[in-house]
Amino acid sequence: MNLIKKTSLCIALLCGLTNVSKSQVGTEDVFKVTFLNPGVSYEKSLGGIHTIYGQAFANFASSFTEDYYSDEYNFDFFVEPALSLQYRLYYNLNRREDRGKNTARNSGNYFTFINENRFTKAPLGFNDVKEAKIRPVIAGALGWGLQRNYDSRFSLDLYLGAGLKYAKTTTYDNYGQLYSANTTSFAFIGQINLGIWLGARD
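^ thats the sequence. predicted structure below, dont judge the formating
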């Protein structure tokens, strides 16, 4: 079963959870400006406990690699444009409401399917080299997260996921010659986003 079929199956399973979770607290549209991972995000309610979340942000990354010929180590730091698109399913809004906790602006916990695209020259592995040109690094993952949007306008959004990433990778062959190939590898994806939500207070 390929990645697309697995992804479709996981989304269908997540959507199926709503058949046993009759939510009375619905999701809302939320627009935010983020400071950590500077950027903007917009979360669109699909009704019930479903949302689609999109974010454009500046990603900070570093790499530590070994030079094939000199055995020296190279450290590089990157500031790169990135996009994130997620499907989110909020599973505990009713429970939070029953306990008198904040549920405004999707303040709850969620399961998510994450698609993240970074545009970077950064090498992917210890034995790889920095790319000559910026190329996309595409990642997909299933994850879990929590979001809290307070009346003060402070916003906290954290998510973690595990999946696969796909990108052009340049490395050395057994003869010390550089070659490039498209590779797929395991990936952890996660963010802690701090920011402010915009719009009218209730």
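The helical segments are 3-16, 93-98.
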